Amino acid sequence: MTPAPIAVALDAPDLETAARWAALVTPHVSTVKVGLELYLRYGPDVIASVRGASGVQVFLDLKLHDIPNTVAGASRAVSRLRPAILTVHAAGGPAMIRAAVESAASNTQIAAVTILTSLTEADLSRIGLAGPADDAVRRLAALSVEAGATALVCSPNEVSALRAEVGAGITLITPGVRPTGAAMQDQVRVATPEQALADGADLLVIGRPITGAADPGAAAAAIAASLRRHVP
Ligand SMILES: O=C(O)c1cc(=O)[nH]c(=O)n1[C@@H]1O[C@H](COP(=O)(O)O)[C@@H](O)[C@H]1O
C-alpha cells in the first residue's frame, strides 16, 4: 500500500524515542519531520537515525530566518544531509528565500512557512499584519514562489485559497491538523486530516495526535486508512 501523504513531526526529547516513533510510523506515512528540538540536541546525526533502513523521506524543519548570506550558508551546510524538504520563514523576504533555494541540494525542496498555525488574527494584528490570515498567507506565498520556493507551509484553513493562487505545481504542506475530537494544544488554525487533503494539501504534518498515542504506529495507520476512505 502506498504510504499516506503525512509527515510525522518527531518532536521528541531524545533520539531513541524519535527513532522508535520513526520506525513505528514509516510503514504507513511518506515522511518524517525533524525539528529544532532534535536537531539542536543531536545535530546532523539525527537525520540518519530517523531515516533508518526504510529510506523514508526526511523533512528538516529548521525554519531558517536571517539575512540572505547567513541563510545561504545554513542551507549549504545541511545540503549534504539530503533532506527532501527544508523550511525557511517566508517573512525573511525574497532575497533570503532565493539564497536558500540556490544553496540547497538539487533534490531538496525549499518550503516557505507563511503564517504559523499557532497564530490568531489578533496575534497577527499585534505583529503588524492586520487583516485576515488568508491575505497575509497569500502575499507571503506569492513572493515565496516568485523567489523560487517550490513548497509552501500554511494552515489547512488557507489551503484551498492558496491552491487557487499558486496552481498545481507547488507542494502545499499543512500542519495544524487534528483528527476529530483530538486536543488542539497550541494549534489555532486547524482542520481534520480528511478536510485538509480534500481542500488540496499535498502533505499533512501531524505530530502529537500520532506520537502522543499509546501506539503511534496504530495511530498513523488509522489516519492513513481514513484518508484512503474519505479522499480516494
Ligand atoms: O513548519 C512546520 O512544520 C510548522 C509550521 C506551522 O505553521 N505550524 C506547525 O505546527 N509546524 C510544525 O508542525 C508540527 C505540528 O505538530 P503537532 O501540533 O504536534 O501536530 C510541529 O513540529 C511544528 O513545529
UniProtKB/TrEMBL annotation:
Matches recorded under SUPFAM superfamilies: Ribulose-phoshate binding barrel
EC number of this enzyme: 4.1.1.23
Catalytic center residues: 63 (proton donor)
Boundaries of every Orotidine 5'-phosphate decarboxylase domain copy: 5-223
Taxonomic superkingdom: Bacteria
Catalytic activity: orotidine 5'-phosphate + H(+) = UMP + CO2
UniProt binding sites for substrate: 11, 33, 61-70, 117, 178, 187, 207-208
One of the Pfam families matching this protein, by short name: OMPdecase
The keyword Lyase appears for this protein: yes
Signal peptide per UniProt: none
Entry keyword Lyase: yes
Record InterPro entries: Aldolase_TIM (IPR013785), OMPdecase (IPR014732), OMPdecase_AS (IPR018089), OMPdecase_bac (IPR047596), OMPdeCOase_dom (IPR001754), RibuloseP-bd_barrel (IPR011060)
Molecular function (Gene Ontology), one example: orotidine-5'-phosphate decarboxylase activity
Pathway as given in its UniProt record: Pyrimidine metabolism; UMP biosynthesis via de novo pathway; UMP from orotate: step 2/2
Keyword set, alphabetical order: Decarboxylase, Lyase, Pyrimidine biosynthesis
Subunit: Homodimer.
PANTHER family in UniProt: OROTIDINE 5'-PHOSPHATE DECARBOXYLASE (PTHR32119)
Family as reported in the entry's similarity comment: Belongs to the OMP decarboxylase family. Type 1 subfamily.
Role according to the record: Catalyzes the decarboxylation of orotidine 5'-monophosphate (OMP) to uridine 5'-monophosphate (UMP).
Protein name: Orotidine 5'-phosphate decarboxylase
Organism: Nonomuraea marmarensis
